Amino acid sequence: MIYNLLFGYKDTYLRSKFIEILFFYHFLVTFSKRLSSYS
């Protein structure tokens, strides 16, 4: 039961990290597009 609890916590942690990386990547793409449109 404890193992299940820890594994579930780890899973949510990885999922939140993955979402963070997705948001960061989206921000980078938008930023580079904006830069290229200015120049």
Question: What features would you describe in this structure?
Answer:
The chain has one domain. Helix content is 95%, strand content 0%. The protein has one helix at 2-38. The radius of gyration is 17 Å and the shape is rod-shaped.
Mean pLDDT: 85
Distance between the amino and carboxyl termini: 58 Å
Number of helices: 1
Number of domains: 1
State the secondary-structure class.
mainly alpha
Structural Rg? 17 Å
Hey, roughly how much beta strand do the residues contain?
Answer: under 5%
What is the helix content?
Answer: over 70%
**Low-pLDDT segments:** none
Spell out the helices and strands N to C. Answer: H
The total of beta strands comes to 0
Biggest sheet statistics: none
The gross shape turns out to be rod-shaped
Defining key terms:
mainly alpha
Task: Annotate the secondary structure layout.
Blueprint: H1 2-38
Short description:
The protein has one domain. The chain is 95% helix and 0% strand.
